[in-house]
Amino acid sequence: MPKVFDVRLTVIGGIGFAVAIHAEDEAAHVDWRSRYDALRYEMIDTPADLLGRAVSCLRRFGLSYGAFDFSVDPDGRWWFLECNPSGQWGWLVEETGLPIAAAIADELVRAA
Going from the N-terminus, what domains does the chain have, and what CATH number goes with each? Predict the structure, then answer.
């Protein structure tokens, strides 16, 4: 499957934060984790049905948080790769300013 870019969809409760990860290097295009210095980030919208499925997945496993990884093909189709229940998010906040920490705090208060 040829891909155009990858997506890290961080889901907290019912809220999703999607970031497109654009590789500017061949090694990073194969695996973006190989060259963080060759990446460009873009906040994007998540297809509503996909966000709903991600939230359902978390609920099924009794989780409030998940870092979902996808690859997006030239037709705009999102291909699921994995969900990490303890996936990293801090670097995305630094790169994009997304309020992920606030969403985690809100979820912790709501769940208390």
Answer: 5-111 (3.30.470.20)
Q: What's the residue count for the chain? A: 112
What local confidence, expressed as pLDDT, does residue 4 receive?
97
8 A C-beta contact, residue 9 and residue 52: no
> Which string of b and e fits 67-78 if b means at least 16 CB within 10 Å?
bbbbbbeeeeeb
CA dist 106 → 14, 15, 47, 62 (Å): 11, 11, 23, 17
Quote the pLDDT of residue 1.
66
Confidence grade of residue 87 (pLDDT, cut at 50, 70, 90):
very high
